[in-house]
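Posting this for the archive.
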Amino acid sequence: MLTNQLGMKVCLLNFGARISSIKLPINGQLQEMVVTYSDTQDYLTDEYYLGATCGPIANRLSKAEFVIDDNLYKVFANEGDNCLHGGENNFSNSFWEIDRESQSDNYVKFLLNLVDLENGFPGNRLITVEYRLNDNNQLKVFYTGVTDKKTPINMTNHVYFSLGQASCLSLDLFLESTSFIERNDNGIPTGEIKNTSSLGVNLEKESTIKDLVANCTYPQVCHDAGIDHCFVLDKSSFENPKAILCSSANGVKLKVYTDQPTVQVYTGNYLAKPFIKHAGVCLECHDFVDAPNQPNFSDITYSSSKVYQSEIIYEFEIESH
């Protein structure tokens, strides 16, 4: 557990290098900010990637394959013909080593060693996830990936934010984005980038998620009664929050900072027992979806001379009512 001087507490698990709980003191009482299991053992059979580190490739990989230097690599298809969040034995379902020597009250480092072609992905790889909680109520997440062979890496965290509410629909959402990745009904990008105006709503104007979903005219959002799309973030400095989530009920504001170019907004459309639909919203900061199979998207291939690094900061504020 990580703690800070303001009383914030973050629980982490080495299974999936997960965030299992984020508690914030509000009016003298600790309130849970994320969707979480009451029994830690339930994470072992979790189907929803609750708080998990996703990889080697977060989100979807079409046809569960990719090509590097004319070599075709086939990986595990765990969502129809496609690979979701790295396949069956992915980062989320792995037991990570904890670097005990560096561990402190506000810092922990998880390590995962993978051999060449483990789960179909090339390269002997060392993956690390570092969590640091500071006294400004910032939870900093830093990812690295070192490999001895060309391999794709695209990681994120899949925490579902509720900000202490029963449903994310009551939360206000702002995104620094004017475009999103068009996808087919299986979540695979078409390769086209569309303006958010085609959704019929303005994500750069803070609105409740309930209103965003209700007012959206985009067929996929209407069909799912929720959002599950990847938004391209406007290019601004890291110091600008790329997403802001607020609860008017308790005054909690979450600011999300990232050096990644996109964020997948997923409003928990398929959450089910022991949870409820829309119990939380994921803001998955990562590189472009299905990038190895999309010639117009960024290159997520890393090598012995190119180390993977990315950073996400979750900053919590409590506004007075």
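The mean pLDDT is 97. The chain has two helices and 27 strands.
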